Amino acid sequence: MKKLTAAAAIGLGMAACLGTGVYAGSNLTEIKAYLNGNIQIKYNGNPVQLLNDQGQVQLPITYNGTTYLPIKAVSTILKTAVSYEPQTNTVFLGEKLEGVSIAKGFSSDWHTQDPQVTVYQGKDYKDVFFNNYASTRSAGFILEPEGKYQKLELQMAAIGADISEVTIKDTDTDVVLKKVPLPVSDGLKTVEVNIAGSKNLYVSVVRIEENGSWFVPLTTSYYK
Fold it and tell me: Which CATH number fits domain 100-223: 2.60.120.260, 3.30.70.100, 3.30.750.200, 1.20.120.1630?
């Protein structure tokens, strides 16, 4: 991950400040350290502030000649996902090796497990978003990665009529992360989107033709 390498190059350690849950069951050693308000942080030459999830300023900590930065605040600046797994006392940075299906917690009027419509090109995907309403319309659904993941791998297909464009947007920042065409000829298409720091996403289509449908298999679409 190039962005993490850039962070290491400034010669500062990063403390895993992910909340009190990090410390549960840990083997800790008490130390005497200092909050250091004299340290200035610049990223790509521009001044930045280290902030927690509530928008409060976080100060670097100096201990034994080394300055440590809160990893959550740094990851936000570098647009690198960070999450903590309390069961194993593990901090995850960047992509996870094993994807997490977007089916978990997915909610939509067009969410279905009906075997009559979950099959695409001979394969049953079991759990899908399938918009096949019989008129020209717009459509969309919400995803909630909650800032835990680096990447979204979204599979989808247009059936019956081309879809000119699918938009993936961060709804909290109103930033469009990706726009892709979805012609029928592409079949089942996988779209990769960098979603580091995104808590809520809106995946939408402005226009689906009357004879067209939008198929999104949830079991093979992942957060990573």
Answer: 2.60.120.260
